[in-house]
Specification:
Mean pLDDT: 90
Number of helices: 13
Distance between the termini: 48 Å
Helix content: 40-55%
Radius of gyration: 22 Å
Number of strands: 14
Number of domains: 3
Strand order of the largest sheet: 6-5-4-8-7
Largest sheet: 5 strands, mixed
Order of helices and strands: EHHEEHHEHEEEEHHEEHHHEEEHHEH
Low-confidence stretches: 255-262
Strand content: 15-25%
Length: 316
């Protein structure tokens, strides 16, 4: 669902003048997305990359003579999937080979669409989930594609806490690869992404962490590993690194500020509970235990340095 309100020039002029509208844009009160379509700048600055991508798509649809079919990472955002290093300026669309020309702020991907390749969400025509994952997996960077594919698998095949439908995920992978096979390019890239993707990754940071761990040299990476807890319920750790006798967790810090995750507790209470949990796991398993965040995922060297501070390294 769109969270940014688009402001059309014709409607704005019902309550203001053209000169004042121009001054609002020049003064930074309004941001122009396309000719004749604006958004409140404060709301725009506070919006997520995904919400901005959706708003740009709606602005394009409002100003296009025919409704575009939004695709690739823009379609992923419309499907509610997180983006990694999102395109900050352009809308991705699929246009038939017969349609000429280009448009500012738009990436036109040439291709043909079947009827079941297109769905409508919140008034936008966008590629279906499977077609979207196929297109992203064929054309985006490995990091971007894995982040989106992980999220798509998670949304469909995580039935509950730590319940993952492996068979359903495998069927979806096959469906996506069949679609990728219709295109002339990118099947090998798509296959690599889909083989690596795993819906048990709960956050984009966990998707990128898994890539970095593989780049460091870890070959067996357990996800959402159960560890006996104090009571009847186990604790779950993001990553099990058996070859290093270690556990690892991505900590994006959002859990300490997100009201949905705090669940009535203060940030300090959550932090203290996490610390007690970590001490219990380290003490009862006698395993090394490391946490890292986004600053440690910028490059493989950053995460390797972080892990080596805890004497965690892959088997040579």
């Amino acid at each position: 669902m769109a969270t940014l309100t688009l402001l059309r020039r014709d409607r704005l002029l019902a309550t203001t003048t053209s000169r004042r509208l121009t001054a609002s844009v020049a003064g930074g009160e309004l941001t122009r997305l396309r000719i004749g379509v604006y958004v409140d700048t404060a709301a725009w600055n506070a919006a997520t990359p995904e919400d901005r991508a959706i708003a740009r798509a709606h602005a394009l649809a409002l100003t296009s003579p025919t409704a575009p079919v939004v695709s690739h990472e823009t379609a992923a955002a419309a499907h509610g999937l997180p983006l990694y290093r999102a395109d900050r300026r352009r809308v991705h669309v699929i246009a038939p080979h017969s349609r000429p020309g280009a448009a500012g702020g738009v990436i036109r991907h040439r291709g043909e669409l079947r009827d079941d390749d297109v769905v409508e969400i919140d008034g936008l025509r966008i590629t279906s989930l499977a077609r979207t994952i196929s297109d992203v997996a064929r054309t985006a960077s490995f990091e971007q594609a894995v982040t989106v594919a992980d999220a798509a698998l998670r949304r469909q095949f995580v039935a509950g806490p730590h319940e993952y439908d492996f068979d359903g995920a495998e069927r979806f992978r096959r469906e996506v690869l069949v679609i990728a096979g219709r295109s002339a390019h990118g099947l090998t890239r798509a296959r690599r992404v889909l083989e690596f993707a795993d819906g048990r990754a709960q956050l984009p940071g966990e998707s990128i962490s898994r890539i970095r761990l593989r780049e460091i040299g870890f070959r067996v990476i357990g996800l959402q590993v159960a560890v006996p807890g104090r009571g009847i319920h186990p604790y779950f750790v993001d990553f099990g690194l058996d070859e290093a006798n270690a556990f690892g967790e991505f900590d994006g810090a959002i859990k300490y500020v997100d009201g949905k995750l705090l669940d009535g507790r203060t940030s300090s209470q959550v932090f203290d509970e996490e610390k007690q949990r970590e001490d219990w796991i380290r003490g009862t398993t006698q395993r090394s235990y490391a946490r890292w965040g986004w600053p440690h995922l910028a490059t493989v060297v950053d995460l390797r340095t972080r892990l080596e501070a805890f004497s965690i390294r892959p088997r040579r």
